[in-house]
Every structure is written in structure tokens, then in C-alpha cells.
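Example 5.3 — Patatin family protein
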Amino acid sequence: MPRREPRERTRSGMRALLSSLRSGRPAALRRWLHAVLLLLALPGCATILRLDPPPPEVAIDLPVLGIPNARFWPDGPPDALLREGEQMLARQRARMGGVLPPANFLALSGGGDNGAFGAGLLTGWTAAGTRPEFDIVTGISAGALIAPFAFLGHDYDPQLREVFTELAPPDVLLLRRIPLALLFNIALADTSPLYRLIERKADARMLEAIAREYRRGRLLLIGTTNLDLQRPVVWNIGAIAASGHPRALTLFRQILLASASIPGAFPPVLIDVEHEGRSWQEMHVDGGAASQVFLYPPSLEARGLADPRAAPRQRTVWVVRNGRLDVAGANVNRGLVTIASRSIATLLHFSGVGDINRIFLTAQRDGLDFRLAFIGAGFAAERREPFDQAYMRALFDYGARKMLAGEAWVSRPPATGTLPAPPPGVR
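Solution (predicted C-alpha cells):
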């Protein structure tokens, strides 16, 4: 039976649905549904259409752009990640003559506009003169947007400062009218401004620099969530950059956008893949849908990467939580939206706390020193809207001051507490 095109299948489904409504329904309701479905069938409203995803059994081993180590599945067997770690150390030993200096790993969490904290922290770290070169940098969501700058070092601090202090909300997203967005779109906001920002900053020069560092034995890893498979994905940006593939830069930009695409609020990113001469599309969203921050899965024991013939190597994991660990009290009214949004916020908060505790326990098991930075109770600037420029500037300066004052890091996750409820109108 010939395969029908997605639009043809959609229209066929609409006709079947309309047929089922012809009996037993009020005429006014039938006319309204008929109008809505006809509008959805128009070419201008076909944003929900996509190519099929690859079958799950194919997707797992599918080499994106033909690059076998372009990505990893952290919830699966750790073999591929282990091989990548071994190759990273082999490149380091070849460059350093076999004697390796202390290792530093940086894990950057999500947090939306709270990413200004991590950006300020890094610039303050540079000013303090103690910022190391990181062997591995990982990022999710807002952390993914920080990660390439953090990976490439202090020369990129001016761009990092610009991204998190000079932009206004329209430079990041365009909010749609809610009723129309719910009926005719796949998200409440249009992120084309954010993608244009990514295009300006994540350019060919940046990709070449990431490729050079990858060849030196350093890793830049960005997390997304494959929504078709409901699985986290870790993208090996250095391997993608070093591949020389003509579509590597586009894929890099798509990964950054996908990692920051909050489901429902921002549109998902469709990544084109090919298998046996056929084109498919994978749907990727915010890495925070699977985890708020990551380093490496507990199934991969970092002790196994150490050379037993060499002296023990000091290794430190630096975790930046672009958010608070405490929670704010509130008088929650009995409204559907209020209860749902408060519950989701609670779920995401403690998901992030759990991720930090997992990294801490894994570091203890594997003999890594642990350091954590987060937004403390002392920061009280008002956020009037998402990506409020004044709020982000204040948070950026707060992160830098904490670093310069030597107050940024704690050596273990602290207990969470509850803050007083903010005044009415303050978020």
C-alpha cells in the first residue's frame, strides 16, 4: 500500500472525525469544529506536521550526520561514553607527555533567565584569577547556552556578558496570543529571536575553536530530550565540530536551541536524520525534561579511567545551579492553573535538587572533589517578566561578587529551606 504524505493523512483523519460528528451533536458545535479543522488544514497552519521519527530500535544506533560518536544515551549502557573518556585521556597524555595535571569538570544547570547567575560567576572567576581550564563542560537549557563560552575560556567572557545582560525579552522570544497559540500552534512562544541570537554567537569560528579543543582532549557535552523516545540525549559537540561535515554548524545550533526549548512554552526542534536512504525527523526539547544538570551517569565509574601506574590525579567537579535550593512560601489559591503550575514548579525544583545529590554521591564514590554554587537567600531582586533585563543584570553582578568574595562554593549540597512568601506582585 503506498505511503501517504503527512498532510494527506491529516486531512483524511479530519474527514473521518467530521463524519463521526454528523449525528447526535448540536449543529452549532459541528459548524465550529468544522471551521477549526478547516483552518488547521490550511498550509499556513501546518506547523504540527513533521516527518516520522525513526523506529526506536534504529534510532539508538543511528549515526547523526554519519558521526558514530555524535551523541550518547546516558540512561543506557555506558560503553560508548567510556570509550570517549578513554580517547580523551589518550589525547591528553599525548599532548602532555604522559603526565596529567589536575582535572576539572564543570556542570551547568538549566534555569532560564537565572542563567545570568552562572554567566556572572564565570566572569568573576576570571577576574579572581583562579578559573581553571575544564576537561569536561556539560550544559542543559540555560546552561547549554553558557557552556560553549565556558568551554572556550575567558576570551569569550565579553560575549557571555552580552548574552546575559544586554538582551531584552523580544531578543529571546515572541509571546503569541494565548487562544490562537492553543488552537493553531505547538507552543506559547516563538523562539526565532533566540535562534537568530544563537546564529550570531555560535558561528563557524566558535565551532572551529571547539574542534581544536576536542583534539586536545577536552569534551563539550550538551543535553537534550528526545521526546519521541522519552529519553535523555548527550551530544558530543567536539566530535560534531571536528567531523568537518557541512551541516555540523547547523546541527550545533539546533542542539543549543533544542536544549533551551521548554516543552509547551517553546517549539520543539526537529532534527533531520537519515537511514537506509530514507529521511526521518527526531523531536528534541529542553534537556531539563529529563534532568536539570548532569556530569556522567553513575553507571560509568570514573575510577576506571585512572591510570593505575600513575600517581593519583586530583579531580574536581564544579556544579553551577542556575537557581535556588530554597523554596518560597506562597498562598496557593484553589485554581486549576495555579495548582498545576505550582505543582510543576515543585517537581522541577526537586528534580534539580535530586540531580545535584546524585552528582555529589557519584563524585564521592569515584574520588572526585565536589563544589557547588547556587543563588542564595540573600539575592532579592524583583523579576517583572521573563528575561527581565534589570533582573538579569542584578543576578549577573551577584554571581560575580560571590566569586570575587570567595563565597561562591560549598563542598556538599546544603539542606533546603523555605523563604517567606514574596509581597504581592513580586515573583
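Remark. The domain at 56-405 is CATH 3.40.1090 (Cytosolic phospholipase A2 catalytic domain).
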